[in-house]
Amino acid sequence: MDVGGTNTDAVLLDLDAVHQESRGVLAFHKTPTTSPNVTDGIETAVSNVLRQAGRDCVSEITCLIVGTTHFLNAVIERDGRRLSKVAVIRLSKSFTKDIPPFSDFAPVLADILHGYHGFIDGGLHIDGSQEAPINKEQVLKECDAIERLGINAVVISGIFSPIDQHFHQEHIVRDIMRQRLPDVDIVCSSEVSNIGLLERENASILNASIMKFARRTIRGFRAAMRRLGLDCTLFISQNDGTVIDAMSAAKLPIKTFSSGPANSMRGAAYLGLGRMGLQDEERTATIVIDVGGTTTDCGVLLPSGFPRAASAYVNVAGVTMNFSMPHLESIGLGGGSIIRERGNNVSIGPDSVGYQLTTKSKVFGGDTLTTTDIAAAGGLEIGNPKLVDYVTPETIQSVRARTKKMLERVIDRLKLTPAPLPVLLVGGGSVVCPLELDGVSQVVVPKFHSVANAVGAAISRVCGSVDAIYSISDMPLSKVIEDAKANAVANAIKAGADPNTVSVVDIDTLPIPYVSGQIRVVAKAVGDLSLDYVADSKPLPEAEDEAEEGFTEQMKDASLSSKEERSDGKTDFDAYRPLVKRNPDSGVNEWFVSETDLEWLSIGCYILGCAGGGSPKAEFLKLRDQLRRGGTVRIIDSSSLRDDALIYCKLGAFPYCLCHSLTCPQGVV
Amino acid sequence: MMGSPAVSIERLNSSECVTAVADLMEYLGHRSFDAIMGLEIGGANGLEPLLIGSSQAFDRPVIDADWMGLRHTFGFAYLSSNILT
Description:
The complex is a heterodimer.
Chain A: E1 2-3, E2 7-13, E3 25-32, H1 39-53, E4 63-68, H2 70-76, E5 86-91, H3 107-113, E6 114-120, H4 136-149, E7 153-158, H5 169-180, E8 185-188, H6 197-228, E9 233-237, E10 242-245, H7 246-251, H8 259-272, E11 286-291, E12 296-301, E13 314-316, E14 319-321, E15 328-331, E16 337-342, E17 345-352, H9 357-360, H10 371-377, H11 393-414, E18 421-426, E19 440-444, H12 452-458, E20 461-471, H13 477-494, E21 503-511, E22 518-528, H14 531-536, H15 541-544, E23 579-582, E24 589-592, H16 595-609, H17 617-628, E25 634-636, E26 646-651, E27 654-659
Chain B: H1 5-8, H2 16-28, E1 35-38, H3 44-53, E2 62-63, H4 74-80
């Protein structure tokens, strides 16, 4: 199943018939996602495919796998009703205070999520030794603050916590908090992701903010299964296209955050590749564009058929995180995206009528103009076309042009070379997309494309991983690697993989800087879902369920803040004008750096640094905040300096003073 | 910044560099300076001079140059700005 923001799709897949023309698809159904209770849509979709397949098939179902972008949509739409306020407690006695938690969040999202943040003693040095021990009094004081504010989600964010092998600082803090605040969700950043404080903390914050909503959602899935008489295991798809059982998913929903697009890519590959008439040619990379109701997710399928992984960072809803997941670019374009006309300009999204497409859009008698209405006005057979008669050809033309530009821009971001690539176009919202795009060799729409996500979920595999620090002073590296591989395979089998199909797909050894005799090993094993495991592990759903009152909808935050839209990707490069002013005192032209300039300089510095000199992210955030507070930064050309100018030079941690060094080859250092 | 970026991705930038410049000024008896210049416009080092030159620190202009031939593209900013028109 795929439960998206707009549609809920179900597919019944016969894994013994994958080589037939139907690719094993026995039945499929698409129905609008229901809200606030997504379970109604799930019941409709599942009961429909079961009916299509015949009466007795319920007992033959081995498992239900659900992939959902439900949580992601809550963040993208900045939906305060579904996101909890988060308190972040940083563990560092002396550092990082200039760049507090939430610095990297768009102001609108930070407004919704930021409940509280504090700094307490703790943190490690890079060699794993303690910067300061945990101080219980301080932890309890923070608990008082959190309780006073009524916050139910907490992130513990320790400096260098992923290499904390001895002190377990985050866990100590968690245990103290849990005793004091038993009903609060507590997330330890080291359990969410790896080295990279800001990105790990960002991911942990989003995880904490969606935990309550995720639990409620998963509980809804289980309830629907019970009503349908489905007595089988419930799995949830993860970001990398593998599955975990629902219990584990509820603790780390961030790992299932973006499974929908990953599934659609794998589903698109399964349905579409080999049908492109390209068998005789060398297979190239393929762009997959999955258009839902609210967002469009684009990724790259490598010639191997697997999604290209994000290199170091992924960006979800404007928040940077350090996760391993397919490289995806998401834009706010979908079948339900709201169209607004401002003079001669049209804007598309990023907000969407989502699951209410069939009541709110014009073509279904509603009062909101959406991309689907434009498609209908342009000739697509959907709803009542008379209701969109009034839409002028000019509007249709400008929406089409804008849609095309949005897609071309996102495709361009994904491509590593200018050569045109084929595009697999999937998803229910794909009707709003043009079939001809610049930079694309051909657009292919595979059979069953509208349920590609659900197909991708159904063919999911199980993953087991190991990420541990090994000592190589008393064990040779080869033995360490063997050990890590064996553990990864064992973890995959424990998570439900068929032992006969498990293989190690990824092994990485990473030296730990400034620490000798230790090495970090990351291993990943993947296998097919074992049918035996499924039969063995039928859940006891009632016992896991939490008290109902904890999940009442918080309607008070319902108003969506619209005071600031994200500026990302909206800058018109051609029209942009930097600000250069003549200084009245010195007569020198000075470039006053704007936030846009700063963003571009930061990207340039990151590239020119070639990973040396570190990421300029922290400096960028500090400068950006200074500019927002009204500060100025000026850049001048070296030719405007007087011959006797006194210049300070920032050389590493040591500033130097130069006198007129620019014309003096050696400088005066 | 000197040393490994492996440190700074966890222990984020603080105000060390601004403090160091202030200390050097005190040592040299300088009350101000004309401009600040970076070693290399690359990575975090590329933006650090902007923090030192910022009006929130010393409020001095940053020279569009470094010691390895890179620039912040003042030329681009100048030519594409409105100042010429």
